[in-house]
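BUG: 3D viewer hangs when loading the predicted structure for this chain

Environment: internal workstation, default settings.
Expected: structure renders.
Actual: progress bar stalls at 90%.

Input used:
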Amino acid sequence: MTAQTHRTTKADRFDDDDFPAYTMGRAAEMIGTTPAFLRAIGDARLITPLRSEGGHRRYSRYQLRVAARARELVDQGTPIDAACRIVILEDQLEDALRMNEQLREQNT
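Structure tokens produced before the viewer hung:
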């Protein structure tokens, strides 16, 4: 693999919604919250950040979108555990609706 190919491959990771590109501090800053909030939603199992070789939490863009949705609910007064459950149910509903649509398309 050439150096140019290697750089392109690494750069492509940043286009991947699941690539854990963001540190806890940067992730908290991006969604306007604190690292403690990210730890709390991790403890509630809403998101599970990957760990760097040094053991530091790393977040993907997808996880940041999920965390931002939970933050919106908490900001509106929803307890954090309930907010996490709501986000999980919203995600499950979206998946179910997408699957229903795919099945309808297959049957037409």
